[in-house]
Design brief:
By secondary structure, the chain is α+β, with helices and mostly antiparallel strands. Helices cover 41% and strands 23% of the residues. The chain is built from five helices and six strands; from the N terminus they run αββββαββααα. β5 and β6 form a beta hairpin. α2 runs antiparallel to α3 and α4 crosses α5.
Amino acid sequence: MATTYDTIRGFLEGPGCSYHFDEEQQLLVTGFRTEHYTNANGEKGLPVIIKLEENGEFLKVFSPAVYHLEPGPHQLSVFLALLQICWRTKMLQYEYDPSDGEIRAIIEFPLEDAELTERQFMRIVFSLVELVDRYDPIIRRAIETGEVDFEALAPDLGEQLASLFRTMARSGGIDELRRLIEEARADKGRPRDKN
């Protein structure tokens, strides 16, 4: 039972997300606003590409050219930061293309014989955006100074409340938020982020 682009279009149209389907490359292009991450055009937003492979049995959700890294004195620090982020998160990966310095953020999801659900899809997309945004200051600092400092991640109470309200809005209301909190409590003790 393969997943199709029509199914994914339905998932995007439900919450009113705008998107473009590229017929030639067979992929969907959309984007989301961010709080911290600023793209190459100086805008607070993250492009997201959704690609089905293997006849709909494998899903890739990624943001191309999130960063650009030239060889230099901070390169190893950046790689260290990226690897530590991958260690701290459940799904997020970073890829580096040495031919042009592109760093992309990606979540890959093997579907095989299972049909993709809306809940799975939304978790993948929102996790990608949320995690890239959350860890952006750490990666930028590594690129600019060579310092890798995760201590700056501890949000203040105001940021925690703002994040809670964003999660509530994204998750479908207070009932769904309660379910997510209960799920998080069940996972308590894990060394990795919820996303």
